[in-house]
């Protein structure tokens, strides 16, 4: 008997018919002899609806109360799914994040998991029940306030529970058949990846691939949890995210063959429209100024992605520093930096939220020269201008104008021979989540 943790996204439980379909899938696992823990997201777009409701009531709702409101969506999903499973003759018990033992810090809206103490989940399994957990939420270790983990937090909940319970696999269900070489809504000829390493998936998630959230993959790698990304709308095998052999009871012949083949140079092409570029113009070129700037940004709890510094051609004693950051944090960053303008001595700020980031990821590029040249040649032929460049051992990222991003993705995807000639990718629910 295996212990399986399954997570179902909002498109998978969007309505009553979808909930019933998911319940049938869960019951099939129980009939096969597996213990099953299920993590659910809110139904459809209900989280967005709750956010809209909060903003109608208050333009700046208190963070604590907003978290309390947003957790309602997942609680609805867990209860109706438990009802649907009971209707099929199997016992199920639903648990909120706090009841499931998901312990977090106090950061409302983007809390981080500190610990998972799944005693009640284990007891439910021992009694023969399916345990259903509300994703995206937990409880503060210090104040016992209800917290949310941020968008995609249900993925992290599922992997954290799988690690705490010692599950054999964590299955992440969405409305696509797995992880593709590019977003199938932009590149219909994208190919499904049968297996991908934690390292490559981390880079893809950090570069904008929305199929798995970054913190979820970080957690999976830290605790060596095999993750199987697949669709709740089909019975097809999905994508395995792991550095270890796929568990024998979940392995298929095609995946055995795939594992024996040489690692592809490029695993996928990711893109991100959620970032903006902030440039600090005319920074005095002396030690300590960059440190002061980035400490100010860090104090606002803003994540920075790409950084470029150039010596000013007009004034050799000054430099321009550009970096990308989440668009939602743009106003906060500008306000914080304007407050230290006189102290640092820079001239002015430039802000651009019309950018898009393209990334190509692949462990194979470590040992294959010419990967970078091929990308820039493809973008040149597609008349894509580049604003910023950043690289790691297995990733190349460039920033361009947001209107050119889709063309850039398709050009890069074709340049590395990733297009599938057989079938087109399907997004069953239309969201890619």
- Which term fits the overall shape? globular
Describe the largest sheet.
8 strands, mixed
Q: Please list the strands of the largest sheet in the order they lie side by side.
A: 3-6-2-1-9-11-12-10
The fourth-level CATH homologous superfamily of the largest domain is: Acetylglutamate kinase-like
Please report the number of helical segments: 13
Number of domains: 2
Which CATH class of the largest domain?
Answer: Alpha Beta
In terms of per-residue confidence, which ranges show pLDDT below 50 for 5 or more consecutive residues?
Answer: 256-262
Under CATH, the topology of the largest domain is which? Carbamate kinase
| Class based on secondary structure composition and strand pairing | alpha/beta
In terms of DSSP E residues, the strand content is: 15-25%
What is the C-alpha radius of gyration, as a whole number of Å? 23 Å
Can you tell me the CATH architecture of the largest domain? 3-Layer(aba) Sandwich
Helix content: 25-40%
Number of beta strands: 20
What is the residue-averaged pLDDT? 91
> Termini, distance in Å?
29 Å
């Amino acid at each position: 008997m295996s212990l399986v943790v399954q997570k179902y996204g909002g498109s998978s439980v969007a309505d009553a018919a979808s909930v019933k379909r998911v319940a049938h899938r869960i019951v099939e696992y129980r009939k096969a002899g597996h213990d099953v823990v299920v993590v659910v997201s809110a139904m459809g777009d209900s989280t967005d609806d709750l956010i809209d409701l909060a903003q109608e009531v208050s333009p700046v709702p208190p963070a604590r109360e907003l978290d309390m409101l947003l957790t309602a969506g997942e609680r609805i999903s867990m209860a109706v799914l438990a009802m649907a499973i009971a209707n099929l003759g199997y016992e199920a018990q639903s648990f909120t994040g706090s009841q499931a033992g998901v312990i977090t810090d106090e950061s409302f809206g983007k809390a981080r998991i500190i610990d998972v103490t799944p005693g009640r989940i284990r007891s439910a399994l021992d009694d023969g029940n399916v345990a259903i957990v509300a994703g995206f939420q937990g409880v503060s270790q210090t104040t016992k306030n209800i917290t949310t983990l941020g968008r995609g937090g249900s993925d992290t909940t599922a992997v954290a529970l799988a690690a705490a319970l010692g599950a054999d696999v964590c299955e992440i269900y969405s409305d696509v058949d797995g992880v593709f070489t590019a977003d199938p809504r932009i590149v219909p000829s994208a190919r499904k990846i049968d297996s991908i390493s934690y390292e490559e998936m981390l880079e893809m998630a950090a570069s904008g691939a929305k199929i798995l959230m970054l913190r979820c993959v970080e957690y999976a790698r830290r605790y060596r949890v095999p993750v199987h990304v697949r669709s709740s709308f089909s019975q097809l095998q999905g994508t395995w995210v792991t550095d270890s052999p796929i568990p024998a009871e979940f392995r298929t012949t095609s995946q055995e063959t795939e594992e024996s083949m040489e690692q592809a140079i490029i695993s996928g092409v990711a893109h991100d429209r959620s970032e903006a570029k902030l440039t600090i113009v005319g920074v005095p070129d002396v030690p300590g100024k960059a440190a002061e700037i980035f400490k100010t940004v860090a104090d606002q709890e803003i994540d920075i992605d790409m950084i470029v510094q150039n010596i000013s051609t007009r004034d050799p004693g000054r430099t321009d520093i550009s970096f990308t950051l989440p668009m939602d944090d743009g106003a906060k960053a500008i306000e914080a930096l304007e407050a230290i303008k006189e102290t640092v001595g820079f001239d002015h700020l430039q802000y651009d939220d019309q950018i898009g980031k393209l990334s190509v990821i692949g462990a194979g590029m470590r040992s294959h020269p010419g990967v970078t040249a091929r990308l820039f040649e493809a973008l040149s032929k597609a008349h894509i201008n580049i604003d910023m460049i950043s690289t790691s051992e297995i990733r190349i990222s460039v920033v361009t104008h947001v209107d050119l991003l889709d063309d850039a993705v398709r050009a890069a995807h074709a340049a590395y021979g990733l297009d599938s000639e057989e079938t087109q990718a399907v997004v069953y629910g239309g969201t890619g989540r």
